[in-house]
Predict the structure.
Amino acid sequence: MTLAARTWGRMSLTARLTAILLPLAVLLAVGTVVGIVFILPPTMDFLGANMPLVRFVVAVVGILVLTIPTAFVLIYMELKVIARMNLRVGPNRIGPWGAAMSLFHGFKVLSKEDFAPTGADLTVFTLAPVVTFLASVMTLLVIPFAPGIFGQDLNIGVLYFFAMGGLAVLGLLMAGWASFNKYSLLGGLRSAAQIVSYEIPLTISVVGVVLLAGTMSMNGIVLSQSGSALDWFAFKQPLAVLIFFIAATAEANRTPFDMTEADSEIVAGFATEYSGMRFGFFFFAEYVNVFIISALLVTLFFGGWTAPINWPWPYNLNWLDAAGIGILWIPIALVALVVATDILGAAIWLIGGREWSAPSAFGLGLLIAGAGVTAAVGLACFIAFDWVQGIFWFFAKTYVFVFTFVWMRGTLPRVRVDQLMGFAWKWLLPASLLNLFVTAAAIIILNQPVIPR
Amino acid sequence: MPIGQTLPFTAVRWDDVLFVVLAIMLLGSALLVVTMRDIIRCGLAMIASFASLAGIYVLLGNPLLAATQVLVYIGAISILVLFAIMLTQTKNAPTRLVFQTQAWIGAVAAVVIAAIIAGTVLTTTWPSTGAVAWTATSDIATMLFGQYVLPFEVVSVLLTAAVVGGVLLARREPPADKEDRS
């Protein structure tokens, strides 16, 4: 037995903890100092010098992360809204008003068995949800959320969007075939026929917008609609909005066009044999798709992140920075929160008397004060930063359309598969061609300048 | 310092590395298309090969062509090819069909095409600079609808004729009268 081992054996628990933690703390402190002094500046220089690359990586990570809250909010919204429309209560157990429902749905899906049927083509079976999910996520890369907040401003943005969006059907087809199940195969075939058919009117209806804007860049299209709500392309292209809305519903496999998973006809279509997280990815992709088509509808026809009213009075916030406080507003807001909480809590406690215990009174005070301070800070940011405004308007408009899609699911029955195909080829395609022709003719007659970019 | 144009400690350019990777993917998946026996997997390998080609188009400075490649070849043509295969093949039939009964004709055709391409590559004088020329969308549009508008229209008429012919061939004869159906 060595000296070190004997000493270790004689030490008390506290001494042992100290012996471990003290060197660790010293090491961490030294490491932090060394990191800040020697490693941080070169790293920042390196990142700063490679700004485009860093921006791209951040954008990709950002949109990947964005899909998670989007899908959760949409799943909860769909459960709750449709329940209300059916005069039910909907999820109401987990979290306030059942708000944590989709989170626990996620945990449930993660903990399920990852099952593959006998005879399935395992490679293709595994790759199918990946293809579908990635196709959805990659389309998010070109959507402008606010001025300066977008993944990549491609000058062929619209074309990129449709190219990537068309890949989702590949995943569904792969899933349908690899499941080794005739219902799945039928679902996959239906989705291929449906999406390839509806992609044509969808794309042609957008060409009118591209003609009007003179650019295929998403950012350029938003900028050419800036002004008030009257400048939105929805009013110049009413037919295109209608065609786009219908075709996009079919592209996203939403009711009334959810033939691919019509559970009363072909069980669940391509998703029959999927379980666990593989199934989860399909559903992630589906809900993200609803968000994406709403976002695209807003971007192309409803002005994107621009505000619906043109604020007539100029405003500036220079008085905020009059004393040169700048970043000090953050601690001021925190102090205001604490003071307001104390005052409100004391008031509630004094007035409410015996009804309120001190913690609950101050808790209520904190709630009210927090809401007030958040509203004040939010309003200040809304006025001060145009990207906060942009994000607000973008998400507000997008969720109006998301709600419309949920509403449709709660209201409309499913169409028949031959009606679906006939409608695409006999009505939507001629209508979109007519729209394109009329738009082009109007541009030539009115001689609007089309600026090639 | 910014990441340079070349790989660290070597003179190999990043573009070249990307090109080699994409070319290996392209050729590898193209080989898989003809060597694999499972026809659906062949179709999927074909899609991978189209996707690598789109990557090469981007690398050559023409994202428009790449997006069109993905939209048309992967999003429409390959999907329809897979669709047709899945419609005609049943699960009970052997999926591993021996389908290259025309191997000799195929070999001759491949050699002829390779010879034509090699001849073209050898006789063309290539620009010596390695610069990537980014092609603007409007340039392509001006050329397509200005200088080459006649070939463009001829191709459109040809495609329309093909669609009409396809519909005519696939059309089911309407039953002559009610007695025939029973």
Notes: Chain A touches chain B through 35 residues (CB under 8 Å). The longest helix of chain A spans residues 13-49. The mean pLDDT of chain A is 82.
